[in-house]
């Protein structure tokens, strides 16, 4: 886990923000060239798939969560991903410390508020982390609604009872209140900074049958934001699209969720320019 030095040069794509396919390929290509170090403080269920997603995309994962290591290690990471899936009293201080260190070092960080409304402790912890100014917040519809309303009982946890479009107004409100880009996974992946809203239309329904795919796309978002931290909305939408395309290609070879998991990782690793340029589906909403 050799620390990567930050490359301050942003990704520049001719044609402006509307040229989503070219921007997405430019980000993925740069990610592969730079192999940014992404620190993940995440849950026990998702560690394996998150790490393998980052490796397949070209990033360098570091699954470091010890509070004793964070002050020394986190400043060397290009981005930080915090996922509260199996949060405990022991892990929360390390998460908060890592967010503080990342902010002090000028590193972007991404929050995945898993099952945010499932309990008072979990919601309070998520709100405390939101107060640490994440660059991006990524959740399902129920999680984003629960965070936005800051009330228990709005979420069934990871089995979201709300579609992404149901959470659009909550996402916009949360983005405006926090300054974060807020993204909502669903049949349409919504990304907003409170003013602009874009939708990603890549992916397949069977990905919902594989545990930790949502966690893994959050890690991929962190890697993309590491490459272009000055444009977190564009980086987030591009990461969603890349992950979704890999899922589409994986399904063409899969017989079910287990084989889709394998083919998704293989497809992510093998994505080429022609495939990305022809399959990216990101639109303004």
From TrEMBL:
<dbReference type="GO" id="GO:0004417">
    <property type="term" value="F:hydroxyethylthiazole kinase activity"/>
</dbReference>
<keyword id="KW-0460">Magnesium</keyword>
<keyword id="KW-0418">Kinase</keyword>
<comment type="pathway">
    <text>Cofactor biosynthesis; thiamine diphosphate biosynthesis; 4-methyl-5-(2-phosphoethyl)-thiazole from 5-(2-hydroxyethyl)-4-methylthiazole: step 1/1.</text>
</comment>
<dbReference type="InterPro" id="IPR029056">
    <property type="entry name" value="Ribokinase-like"/>
</dbReference>
<keyword id="KW-0808">Transferase</keyword>
<protein>
    <recommendedName>
        <fullName>Hydroxyethylthiazole kinase</fullName>
        <ecNumber>2.7.1.50</ecNumber>
    </recommendedName>
</protein>
<comment type="function">
    <text>Thiazole kinase involved in thiamine salvage pathway.</text>
</comment>
<dbReference type="GO" id="GO:0000287">
    <property type="term" value="F:magnesium ion binding"/>
</dbReference>
<dbReference type="GO" id="GO:0036172">
    <property type="term" value="P:thiamine salvage"/>
</dbReference>
<comment type="similarity">
    <text>Belongs to the Thz kinase family.</text>
</comment>
<dbReference type="GO" id="GO:0005524">
    <property type="term" value="F:ATP binding"/>
</dbReference>
<dbReference type="InterPro" id="IPR000417">
    <property type="entry name" value="Hyethyz_kinase"/>
</dbReference>
<dbReference type="Pfam" id="PF02110">
    <property type="entry name" value="HK"/>
</dbReference>
<keyword id="KW-0479">Metal-binding</keyword>
<keyword id="KW-0067">ATP-binding</keyword>
<keyword id="KW-0547">Nucleotide-binding</keyword>
<keyword id="KW-0784">Thiamine biosynthesis</keyword>
